[in-house]
Every structure is written in C-alpha cells, then in structure tokens.
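Appendix B. Chain record.
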Amino acid sequence: MADTRTSRTDDHKPRRRRVANASDIGLRLGISPSILDVANYEYRWINDDERSRLHAKTQEDDWDVVRNDGSVKEDSADIGNAISRIVGTKKTGEPMRAYLCRKPKMYFDDDQKAKKAELDRQLADLRRGKSASGDSQSDYIPTSGIRIG
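Structure tokens predicted for this chain:
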C-alpha cells in the first residue's frame, strides 16, 4: 500500500522576501531600482575620502546625496540617512564610505559635452603635433600628418 500523505515541508513553501528587483542581488553597490529616477537623473557613487571629494561634488557641483527613501539631501552636512556603502579603508584606518548621489540629467549631459569638447581640442592639438604644454613636436610629425583613430 502506497503512502499518499504529503509531508509538512511539501505543504509549506517559504515565501520570498522580494519578488521584484532581484537583479541587484550579488552586486556589492547594488541599489533597489525602485528608488531611482533614471529618466531625470544620473546616479553615481561618490567616495568620502581624505580629499573631501563628497564635499566638493555636493557643494561645488550639482550632485545631491540620496536618502534611503529616495529623496535627496541637498547639503552634505548631515548624511545620517543617506544611502552609503563601505568601499575601503582610509589612510587613518577608519572605513571609507561611498554615498549614492544624483545629478539632473540636463546638467550631467552639459558637463559631458564640455569634457568632450576639451578632449576634442587636445586631440586636434596632437594631430597638429603640439604637446600638452603647447610646444611644437614637429620632429615627430610625418610628412603625411598624424592620423589618430
């Protein structure tokens, strides 16, 4: 006679804590996409290192620290509720944290255009045989000119 009873473990399957947003599992700096507004903002992790990079980016640039609820803290003086991760160790031995920050896409795109324009200018100088300091490097220019890329 076959046993038709099911075991207690078969009747009770554990329920998942998160069904959605499982894509960030395993990512050390992963963040739930539900709090990100990627249509309007660019996001970056900014280290709070000895060079005061976080202060520079949030006070002298347009980056804002993102809080745990997805809102932003527009000054970095109180970052207690900010989304952060430990990413290393400072020279002093204390943990170094990276904070999730966001910048409006419009400003980010303008910054990228300015960076591209500067790189294009430097590349044009290289093609003309000029060094980074502006000195002529004509002894290295072939008669056919310099072709890059």
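Further analysis of this model is presented in Appendix C.
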